[in-house]
Amino acid sequence: MIFRRKGAGADPSGDEASLDLETVADRAAESAGDRRSQVGPWDSTERPPVADDPDVIDLGAVLIRGRPGLELRLQTDQSTGAVVAVMLVSQDGAAELRGFAASRSRGIWSDVRRDIAGEAARHGGTATESEGEYGPELRVVVPLQGSDGRSGTQVSRVVGIEGPRWLLRVTYLGRPATSPDPENTLAAAVRDVVVVRGQDAMAPRDPLPLRLPPHAQVVPDVDS
Known about the structure:
single chain
């Protein structure tokens, strides 16, 4: 695995209907949470970190277990050098991981989904919701222009996985975005992730802090 730097008058019947929808959403979130707690990714209280585990890379808020055929890249803010996202790359695609704080009382994935859909629409794209392994997820299609000037589209699949006071947002690219498969190398790697939320007070949707692991070698992009 290597590291690379990579350069955002009330109607009573209406009230009753709204309450029913909220209940359904809460139950769906509980079901997705049950799924996560059975297969991963894990909270650090469920899978406590083992000091000096040679197979695990400590990135602060997330711990990544190495796998054959998996490359790890870190996306950093070019102005500050801070690590903002983790990218897992395999032969047939990639998965970007970002962790966020959430409240004890309710999840944030439904709000984040709406924001992602709105952002896709502003860029002339679409975001289609479907049911996935962890509940509702989004298939996002946005137009883009290649380096050769040709127009095309980029397809991604955005999955929100909620744990105790955190959300792990996973954006799949390549084959895992268009043909989801729980046995895919990237999907299996995501299930191995351990999220370290910590006890510090954080506002919902604040990014969980990431860091370079000790003795990491940072390799600039060849096109930077």
